[in-house]
Write a structure and sequence with these properties.
By secondary structure, the chain is mainly alpha-helical. The chain is about 80% helix and about 0% strand. It has 18 helices and no strands. The longest helix has about 35 residues. The N and C termini lie far apart (about 45 Å). The protein binds phenylalanine. Phenylalanine binds next to helix 1, helix 2, helix 10 and helix 14.
Length: about 450
């Protein structure tokens, strides 16, 4: 991605939102919400987004915009020392681990797109679809093939540096995806029994809020907003000069949250109307959505369109994930005796991603562990360090004035932001960590 890549402010927001909106919203959010009490989870999730998602998103954008660098150079440029360099290693580690399982799920989406094209789901009900998922997922060579495909596509985008095309694509496709989801929600809400699903998703039953639910919601917030691994630092570095960081952050958050809620509005009414369990884990959307699409008018076209858009939404996220690692490798090796240029870095990162992806397919325990390790540990840890770094370590008035200088933000807003960054964000993350340790 070159500095000139983002021709407009809207382009950057759409690209950053394209990176944030992905399988986290449409695949992960519904199944985690389903496992954690529906409405209770939604409430805690929304609180997480406001209390620490927002300040952290602003902070990452700001670090990137201010330093003009991605993770490797950014912490060094801002602190003037190398003491904080290790955070960039944590970021790239997280990006690689996420890539491992993310490419597996993207592979599932491609598999479903091909099957939608060949009308495989015609006449299948939810239980037939559950069996279908089991069979497809058990076919290792097929899964590996479908996992390699998005790795190659992502690598190709970075190799040919065609981010400008992606920017344009996001501008059209993201609203299209949202529109498609609204149509699907409209159809689902006409099904008998759909109101039970709406109650499940929107009824905030406080008794269901447990420490575990809070932990899951926090992890989901990091994952869905792409915070805690420097992905947004990288976008921040490409921000046009006059871009308002606060406005960009709000827009990314609103879009991301909207898509997640829409996914819930489609999945849960359908789950109850079809009589399947909301707690079936990662396969949930692959069991429910094809059945929903079968009910639409123009079923074949709807399926193809939806899975096509889902694949593209996943790809815009894998592009931003891979970019974190590629930019890191380029910057980190630049001053060494063996500097790796962009294309060599792309090859290296893609090869590693394929290995991790295959491990996740062959050993399902690694798939689960990768997800838990990143959303439950390394992303919150990185976020904690970032909040301490920007809130406390940078010169006292640092973050506030950096924010104001970089964004032209009003003093008041800067103060509120700084308060959240210094106190609320670290306290919440520490509390959740301590709870995780059983303390
Ligand atoms: N936020 C993306 C999603 O919801 C996943 C992602 C995480 C992308 C971290 C980049 C960095 O699918």
């Amino acid at each position: 991605m070159k500095k000139s890549s983002f021709s407009s402010k809207v382009g950057l927001i759409m690209a950053a939102a394209g990176g944030a909106v992905g399988l986290g919203n449409i695949w992960k959010f519904p199944y985690i919400a389903g496992e954690n009490g529906g409405g209770a989870f939604l409430l805690v999730y929304l609180l997480c987004v406001l209390l620490f998602g927002m300040p952290l998103l602003i902070t990452e954008f700001m670090i990137g915009k201010r330093s003009g660098k991605s993770t490797y150079g950014a912490f060094r440029a801002l602190s003037g020392t190398t003491h904080w360099q290790w955070m960039s290693w944590l970021c790239v580690f997280t990006a690689m681990v996420i890539m491992g399982f993310y490419f597996v799920v993207t592979g599932w989406c491609f598999n479903y797109l091909i099957e939608a094209l060949t009308n495989v789901f015609h006449g299948m009900d939810a239980s037939a679809l559950a069996e279908h998922f089991r069979v497809v997922n058990g076919n290792l060579p097929r899964m590996i093939g479908f996992g390699v495909l998005p790795v190659l596509l992502t690598a190709a985008v970075l190799w040919f540096d065609v981010n400008k095309g992606i920017e344009r694509l996001s501008k059209i496709l993201m609203p299209l995806l949202l529109l498609m989801m609204i149509l699907m929600a409209g159809r689902v809400l006409m099904l008998d029994g759909s109101n039970i699903g709406m109650q499940f998703f929107f009824q905030f039953d406080y008794t269901k809020i447990t420490p575990h639910v809070v932990m899951e919601a926090m992890g989901q917030c990091f994952f869905s907003l792409s915070i805690g691994l420097g992905a947004l630092i990288t976008y921040g570095a490409y921000m046009p000069k006059g871009q308002n960081v606060l406005a960009a952050s709000v827009q990314v958050i609103v879009l991301d949250t909207l898509v997640a809620i829409m996914a819930g509005v489609i999945i849960f009414p359908a789950v109850f109307a079809f009589g399947v369990s909301p707690e079936q884990g990662p396969q949930l959307v692959f069991v429910v959505l094809p059945a929903v699409l079968e009910q639409m008018s123009f079923a074949w076209l709807s399926s193809v369109l939806f899975f096509g858009l889902l694949c593209i939404a996943a790809l815009t996220s894998t592009i931003s994930l891979m970019e974190v690692a590629v930019a890191f490798v380029c910057e980190a090796t630049a001053a060494s005796r063996h500097p790796l240029n962009r294309r060599k870095s792309v090859c290296l990162v893609a090869a590693l991603a394929v290995v991790l992806m295959i491990l996740c397919i062959v050993f399902p325990a690694i798939f689960d562990l990768s997800d838990q390790l990143t959303a439950g540990f390394t992303m919150p840890l990185t976020a904690l360090c970032i909040s301490i770094f920007v809130g406390w370590v940078l010169p006292k008035s640092g973050a506030g004035s950096v924010l104001r200088n970089t964004t032209g933000l009003k003093r008041r807003v800067g103060q509120v932001y700084l308060f959240f960054l210094r106190w609320i964000v670290p306290l919440i993350i520490l509390m959740v960590f301590l709870n995780g340790l059983g303390l």
